[in-house]
Amino acid sequence: MKNCKIKNASLAPAGLKKIEWARSHMPVLERIKKRFAKEKPLEGVRIAACLHNTKETAVLAETLAAGGAQVALCGSNPLSTQDDVVAALASEGISVYAWRGINKKDYYWCINKVLDIKPHITLDDGADLISAVHSKRKQLIPGIIGGQEETTTGVIRLKAMAKACALKFPVIAVNDAKTKMMFDNRYGTGSSTIDGIMRATNILLAGKRFVVAGYGWCGRGLAMRARGMGALVTITEVDAVKALEARMDGFEVAPMLEAARYGDIFVTATGDIDVLTKKHFPLMKDGAIIANTGHFDCEINVKQLDAMAKRKRTILPEVDEYTLPNNRRVILLAQGRLVNLACAEGHPSEVMMMSFGNQALATEYLVKNAGKLKNKVYEVPDEIDREIARLTLQAMSIKMDVLTKEQEEYLSSWTSGT
Ligand code: ADE
User: Fold this and answer.
1) Does the C-beta of 184 come closer than 6 Å to ligand 1?
2) What is the CATH number of the domain that holds 71?
3) Do residues 306 and 209 share a domain?
4) Would the CB of 347 count as within 6 Å of ligand 1?
5) DSSP readout, 176-219?
6) Could you report the per-residue pLDDT of 61-116, keeping only the tens digit for each?
7) In testing the pocket of ligand 1, which one of 19, 82, 347 has its CB within 8 Å of the most ligand atoms?
8) Is 348 in the pocket of ligand 1 (CB under 6 A)?
9) pTM score of the predicted model
């Protein structure tokens, strides 16, 4: 097995079955793959990807490879790689450098290995690859046509780079496509975060007080699904409009210092640092569960929790119990890393098909427009966004109405009124 570093190649048969399962739930990506296989729009294109290595990402990698691309993959989080899936990808001849439980030094070693292919395109989930190119591998920049970013946190980092005139090639914010954000971030995070908490703890959500920090698309989806499981949901926010929206959506809104006293389960979904800290832990009820579903492990200050605890023990896989000086126990899931990918399998294939459909078509767009774009963060072109919505509706056998000629004319006129 050349150009790979994975944990266990013998897991490939299990991984291949998982990927087959994902494929059968990702008909839009399969359709794009068929066209790519015929038209080969990515012939000769080298793609370096730093993504969560799940069965869905495997289907994206296969799609890009079908289009003629050479793909090299590494992970975008230490706990999100599915070892059987990467073994399967390696058995299919895709370069992959990733394993679950990777340490920081090896994480960056893997990033450098995928960059060694001298990519034309970079795919990121969190902007670590682009950040490495701009800081340590600058000599690669002239060969790069453009990049793509999958998640909100990464888009924020890239916009900051563009604002500081530090971004040296164009990037498409796949995260911000309507057919990504409104579905993956909302329904994907809602579903997979609950899944992660349930798989790790098997607790009953009905009747529990569930606190969601942040009411962006991810927080909205999670709050909606927690309520659906019978929990009483509280939202914490710093944005007045979002706080108001949460309240009018029927959720309680409170500052974290208040919610900390009564929550049974806390999940952070803000993208910011220090959402749960040493100010909050001692206020929590005995046995309170805390988890994060944001991209980086900075939302819960685990260092402070470690420092203040008088005892720590692992109760179940990825379930750590901290006993505080006041003898109350706080239960941390997945070491404060993305609970949906570390304790479950990430978002379901059906939403990833939309996100990765955007990734595949945006890759084709970047190649077609090589040299024509500026060094800034672009939105996904509206035609691509709409095409993904149309293909998804078709895959779900959902039909919709079309405007009549008269309706179109009415909508474009300004003369008719009262
Ligand atoms: N991000 C969230 N869920 C994911 C999944 N299933 N695959 C890849 N990236 C993800």
Assistant:
1) no
2) 3.40.50.1480
3) yes
4) yes
5) GSHHHIIIIIIIIHHHHHHHHHHHHH----TT-EEEEE--SHHH
6) 999 999 999 999 999 999 999 999 999 999 999 999 999 999 999 999 999 999 99
7) 347
8) no
9) 0.96
